[in-house]
Amino acid sequence: METALAKTPQKRQVMFLAILLLLWEAGSEAVRYSIPEETESGYSVANLAKDLGLRVGELATRSARIHYKGDKELLQLDIKTGNLLLYEKLDREVMCGTTEPCILHFQLLLENPVQFYQTDLQLTDINDHSPEFPEREMLLKIPEGTQPGTVFPLKIAQDFDIGSNTVQNYTISTNSHFHVATHNRGDGRKYPELVLDKALDREERPELSLTLTALDGGAPPRSGTTTVRIVVLDNNDNAPEFLQSLYEVQVPENSPLNSLVVAVSARDLDAGAYGSVAYALFQGDEVTQPFVIDEKTGEIRLKRALDFEATPYYNVEIVATDGGGFSGKCTVAIEVMDVNDNAPELTMSTLSSPTPENAPETVVAVFSVSDPDSGDNGRMICSIQNDLPFLLKPTLKNFYTLVTQRALDRESQAEYNITITVTDLGTPRLKTEHNITVLVSDVNDNAPAFTQTSYTLFVRENNSPALHIGSVSATDRDSGTNAQVTYSLLPPQDPHLPLPSLVSINADNGHLFALRSLDYEALQEFEFRVGATDRGSPALSSEALVRVLVLDANDNSPFVLYPLQNRSAPCTELVPRAAEPGYLVTKVVAVDGDSGQNAWLSYQLLKATEPGLFGVWAHNGEVRTARLLSERDAAKHRLVVLVKDNGEPPRSATATLHVLLVDGFSQPYLPLAEAAPAQAQADSLTVYLVVALASVSSLFLLSVLLFVAVRLCRRTRAASVGRCSVPEGPFPGHLVDVSGTGTLSQSYQYEVCLTGDSGTGEFKFLKPIIPNLLPQGAGEEIGKTAAFRNNFGLN
Predict the structure, then answer these.
(1) d(CA 748, CA 770)
(2) How far apart are alpha carbons 351 and 365 in whole angstroms?
(3) Which of 369, 552, 728, 761 has its CA 20 to 30 A from that of 388?
(4) CATH architecture of the domain with residue range 449-551
(5) How confident is the model at residue 211 (pLDDT cuts 50, 70, 90)?
(6) Of the candidates 168, 668, 663, 254, which has an alpha carbon nearest to the alpha carbon of residue 426?
(7) What's the pLDDT tens digit per position in 72-108?
(8) CA within 13 Å, CB half, 53
């Protein structure tokens, strides 16, 4: 805590004005109790819960406690019974001094919600102090011949009690010359005066010793005594007289030591030693009096620092004594003027830290402020920094509560350093600063957030099971268990995707694993959603999309679609001997189930019956003649074509071709091979490709037929001959029989149509006439073959 002269920063200020105090005092009534001082500790003052209308159980649940300024523990609250107990013996004179009534102000503090109750405890005085004189002996010098009725002042006795328990009467021991008169002072105290009843005679009795007794009004009364020694002097006609019987002066409490307070003056009409006056403090109590007087000049000076807060005024009695023993007395009333010499004090009653986030207007701290100065010097202003989400609210008297201005967000700021500044309104202004740290506790108000909304993972097919294929990551801005994230797989949107058998996720770190080997040809990609859930209450979650792309591996060898590789019925291609070099014999068609460069195929001639006669184009698989054919070349040739992909390592397959050299296509040729049975089990991918190729070929053939039909319709409208006739020529009739010649393994008939005005030998094959004697499935096989040939340019 730091105290300094207050500056004027722009701060929110909460001024506790006197008008607010008056309004509060008018609108609220404190519960007041009264006990005698010196009551033993543990004494039950009252049942506070009952008097305030509170349930006993409420005291414990709301953390009830008693607060007194400066955090002194004078009273304690039994939260089980609601009784207000005395913590220690209380001495009224220590607690309040001469102030009457002696009232101690307490506050009952309750939390959840914060509530204050004012409680006052009045200490009544008991007669526990006896009167005490400042000196054991008083010396009076009285000249003989002094007239009866002359009054001589005596020093008063001190009694710390008040009211009737203080000094009420003075008596003196029995004698024939004096009696004591008791008088009231302006401050309520009583003082004695010695009155001469009978003239003194020095020759008869030069000295007297009397006992002065002070009695208080207690029951039973207490008393104190002192000795009054009287010395009888020769004649002295005049006593000293002060110019003023009462001097009134004001002294600032911060006056320097030895500064002049006031100068008193007395005169004596006698001459010589009897007219010489000496000044002195009448009571002579240098312990309690912070003043000293010059016995010759009568100047009263300050010998000890004044404190307005401790003693605001003094009544000092000054006595002037001449050389003959006569004396006069005056009173100096000194009022101590308050200056702003005390900085405000702040007492923290309760501090709630940490404070939960998201809570509206939460009480963070309860504290009280005090300043022992008076007037503006004791009025205070409380403030905190401007840039904080907190407010100061005045509550009970000098109590304040520090509350949140809005809901706090721990993720934005986890702690606040708050400086509470208390400034008084004196001149110069003094301030006290109190620093507190408010921690913000976490509430689960943030769902986990993935680092990406979607993740793309790559895994090569044929992976090993339990392979780590990637990770997802989510963070939570909360703290503690609210920030602990658990990962899980969410049910797939596609009900046919067997996600639990494909991947798994580590619940703690988000690592993803492939549970089984993946096959690119069966599953190229799949996607699913993962969830991240925190461990707060209630738990919050979020999700992200994960897409897994399966990378192809070269795990499929090329598959030859054409020619069909069948050991029982090898494919035979017909080549006329008159073919030119580069003549297209056939085309090897192959596919690869892989993708990318693993499916790039190349062709090469691996074996040949007669090397150099045929060649294979590397990129398209076309088999062509390499030179002119001669009669010396063998009629039958066997070619083995190697089909190889571009994978790493490469895979390959071979296709065997049988080539028959003929003089012309009209030469009959019937191979001995029998129709091959259908392949028992075809690869599913091959079937798909065959169907696709057949579909494309069918669409092409349909387009050709539509084109021909349109042409025929146009010729009909032009009155042209629209029917096909069979002209005289080399063809014997409407049907042309091809009996096993060429590349076909069965006999087929084709319908041929010649144009009537054709001057050339051009003809067109319109459609095959397939015999009904073909075995089941042979027609379909022939159709596929014809489609492949037509598609790849073999016809």
Answers:
(1) 6
(2) 4
(3) 369
(4) Sandwich (2.60)
(5) very high
(6) 254
(7) 778 888 888 888 888 888 888 888 877 788 888 888 8
(8) 2
Sheet containing strand 151-153, edge to edge, reads: 151-153, 190-196, 178-184
Q: Are strands 223-233 and 137-143 parallel, antiparallel or unpaired?
A: parallel
The single-letter code of the amino acid at 523 is L
What are the phi and psi torsion angles at 69 (to 5°)? -55, 140
What is the pairing mode between strands 511-514 and 467-471? antiparallel
When pLDDT is averaged across residues 334-353 and rounded to a whole number, the result is 88
Q: Which residues pair with 272 in a beta bridge?
A: none
Do strands 572-576 and 652-662 pair parallel, antiparallel, or not at all (unpaired)?
Answer: parallel
| Distance, CA of 191 to CA of 214 (rounded, Å) | 10
Beta bridge pairs of residue 750: 736, 768
**Token code pair at residue 334:** 């000194």
710 CB contacts (<8 Å, ≥6 apart)? none
- Averaged pLDDT, 480-489: 94
Could you tell me the pLDDT band of residue 700, with boundaries at 50, 70 and 90? confident
Q: Judging by beta carbons within 10 Å of its beta carbon (0-12, 13-18, 19+), is residue 772 exposed, middle or buried?
A: exposed
40 vs 89: CA distance, rounded Å? 5
At the topology level, CATH places domain 559-662 in Immunoglobulin-like (2.60.40)
Confidence of residue 500 (pLDDT cuts 50, 70, 90): very high
Q: Where are the beta strands (DSSP E) in 472-565?
A: 474-475, 485-489, 503-505, 511-514, 525-534, 541-551, 559-562
Q: Per the CATH hierarchy, to which homologous superfamily does domain 137-233 belong?
A: Cadherins (2.60.40.60)
How far from the centroid of its chain's Cα atoms is residue 226's Cα? 75
Query: Given a cut of 60, is residue 418 above it in pLDDT?
Result: yes
Sign, Cα dihedral of 16, 19, 25, 28: negative
Instruction: Determine the pLDDT at residue 164.
Output: 85
Percent of the chain with pLDDT over 70: 81
The CATH architecture that domain 241-337 belongs to is Sandwich (2.60)
- Residue 683 confidence (pLDDT): 54
> Whole-angstrom Cα distance, residue 73 to residue 407?
35
Instruction: Kindly state the DSSP code that residue 680 receives in the 8-state scheme.
Output: S
Q: Give the Cα separation of 336 and 251 in Å (integer).
A: 5
Question: Which residues on adjacent β-strands are paired with residue 433?
Answer: 2, 421
> What pLDDT, on the 0 to 100 scale, is given for residue 717?
66
Domain ranges of the chain: 28-122, 137-233, 241-337, 345-441, 449-551, 559-662
* Residue the block writes with tokens 């010395």: 231
DSSP string, 227-243: EEEEEEES------EES
Residues 6+ apart with CB under 8 A from 115: 62, 109
- Tokens 């009264």 label which residue? 34
Residue 752 backbone phi and psi in degrees, to 5:
-115, 140
Pairing of strands 102-110, 65-67: antiparallel
Picking from 436, 426, 516, 505, the residue whose alpha carbon sits closest to that of residue 471 is 505
Report helix, strand or coil for 467: strand
User: How far is C-alpha 117 from the geometric centre of its chain's CA atoms?
Assistant: 34
Rounded Cα distance between 347 and 399, Å, is: 9
The matching CATH number, chosen from 3.30.10.20, 3.30.420.40, 2.60.40.10, 2.60.40.60, for 345-441 is: 2.60.40.60
* pLDDT for 603: 95
Strands 454-460 and 541-551: parallel
Say yes or no: domain 28-122 is CATH 2.60.40.60: yes
Our measurement of the distance from residue 441's CA atom to the centroid of its chain's CA atoms, rounded to an integer in Å, reads 6
- DSSP annotation of 186: T
- Angle at which helix 778-791 crosses helix 684-717, to 10 degrees, equals 80
pLDDT class for 771, splitting at 50, 70, 90? Answer: very low
Tell me what pLDDT residue 640 has: 93
Separation between Cα atoms, residue 503 and residue 529, nearest integer Å: 12
Q: Are 107 and 66 in contact (CB under 8 A)?
A: yes
